[in-house]
Model the fold of this input.
Amino acid sequence: MTESGRRISVVSHRDGERDLALFDVADPDACRDSIPMTDDEAAALADVLGTSVMISRLTNLSDAAVGLFTEQLELPTDSPYLNRPLGHTKTRTRTRVSIVAIVRDKVVLPSPTPDEILRPGDVIVAVGTREGLDAVSRLISNGPD
Done:
């Protein structure tokens, strides 16, 4: 049930088929339309919803904790860490900020390991203090001071 009162569902059949179902506004128990989805379509829907939900949850986390912020930082194209492992940044040690995800090609990589290679176009999702996040931005742009 959406916040606006609309009912939708994704039905996953035992044979692997999937349908997106839209329910009637006047009768929320009556399915108005059913749309079959291919594997690629289902994966695309999951990626879109998963990415937006994860970023939304991280953003809402900072609303509940005074002094804690979430920021998305695009890896600069001339970053000294481009095509190098995330661990080489030593972000947590240098800034006391946690990198909680990397968004790559609209796909969220949650809890990246230090071995994750940073790629062009990556967006780093970080959580920390305002001062720490500013330091991360400088770090990924310029390297260590």
